[in-house]
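Hi support team,

I'm filing this because I wasn't sure whether my run with calcium ion finished correctly. The job status page said complete, but I'd like someone to confirm that the output block is well-formed before I use it downstream. Pasting the exact inputs I used:
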Amino acid sequence: MLTRSRGFTLIELLVVIAIIAILAAILFPVFARAREKARQTQCLSNLKQITLGWMMYATDYDERVMPVEIPSSGDVKFFWWTAYNSATSTQIPEGGLLYPYMKNKQINACPSFKNELRSDVGLTGYAYNYHYLSRLAYNPDWTYEVVTTSLAAIQSPSETVVFADGARISFMDGKTLEGNTYLEPPSQNYPGFHGRHNGMGNIGFADGHAKAETPAYRTGTFGYGSDAEVYRSNSLGDIDSDGDLTTDEMMDLQ
Ligand SMILES: [Ca+2]
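And here is everything the job wrote out:
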């Protein structure tokens, strides 16, 4: 004898929908973290390649390390990832200082670095330990020379940062995140190591290895009245291993 099959009641449907919604709420952040983890791995690989390119550059230039920039000759200024023509606001990636060693534009940029932060010069999300490796020495008339160190001056290459995930807070408004290619050490006025990969940032070291670290966050106010909470909420901290932010043991040449 035929029995009419019974459909779902409204309550049953609502329960099923609620369970699906709960599962989605639990799983979507997991998926997002897994995607970010994949980008972190890609970024780590990029930094390792860029740092190896940096090592090759030094061996080609009498063991002097790569300058953070080669100041403008005419309208064109050279950075590691591009040459930039300020008259036309155009980038020439093939003119980048490390391009001959990488022959690849894609690996220049961190996959988690937001495009809108790249600005005209095509910032890549990676910042260079210029403070110790390639200082800008200003003249009284604000022209400057770029002074580079030698490979031999780096006493512990496996403990000396070359490149890292970097960014900064705008000097104009004190709160907006922006790109930055100059990585500051803890002893300076503001932190620039960006923990953009699930709270961690990647670092390339002078011996060619790369690894992820958690930024060390400042407290209170520092520099010219910067608010630590603004930096903390943007995952901007320092690269530090001894808990003392007055010493630059991961970035100096000792
Ligand atoms: Ca320290």
